[in-house]
Amino acid sequence: MKGIPNSTNTLTELLALMQGLKIAKDNHLMPLEISTDSIEVINFINNGHESYSFIICECRSLMQLLGDTKLSHTYREQNKVVDLLAKEGAKKQLFERTRTLQVPPMFVNEAVWADILGTTYLREVLTQNSNLIATNATIYTGNITIPLFGNDT
Asked: Which region is the signal sequence (predicted)?
């Protein structure tokens, strides 16, 4: 990817998605499941956004070419390997070219093993009930899903 020093997180996420889709297409990686911690990117792909229309159109086109491509949300805690790689890449400013790694770099080994072992993480979030009273809630992320609230309202 080209250098993008003065961009927004959303633009960077969209460009990364587009580049990943191109790599998947070039390497015939189908079916494809994409997880992102950016709800905004998912919303933009699903609903469009005027400022990013060219990139969104390109992503949609690539997703259609790849067939049954699934785009879903994941919490940052579930995306630790990607998060660590992105942070390291940003420090080194390696945007001018795409790198394909045969093995994970040493600095992500702990996160890779946590992923392999299905480690779950606590995530504290501030929520509000229907009476607008703030409450603290904990959700678990990882390979298990625990509902935050029951179905009763």
From this structure: none
Contacts for 103-107: CB closer than 8 Å, 24+ residues apart: none
Decide: residue 56, CB within 10 A, 0-12 exposed, 13-18 middle, 19+ buried: buried
pLDDT in tens, 37-88: 899 999 999 999 999 999 999 999 999 999 989 999 988 878 888 888 878 8
Instruction: Determine contact, residues 17/41, Cβ cutoff 8 Å.
Output: yes
How big, in percent rounded to 5, are the helix, strand and coil portions of the chain? 45, 15, 40
**Residues 6 or more apart from 39 whose CB is under 8 A from it?**
73
Q: Which residue has the tokens 């400022």?
A: 51
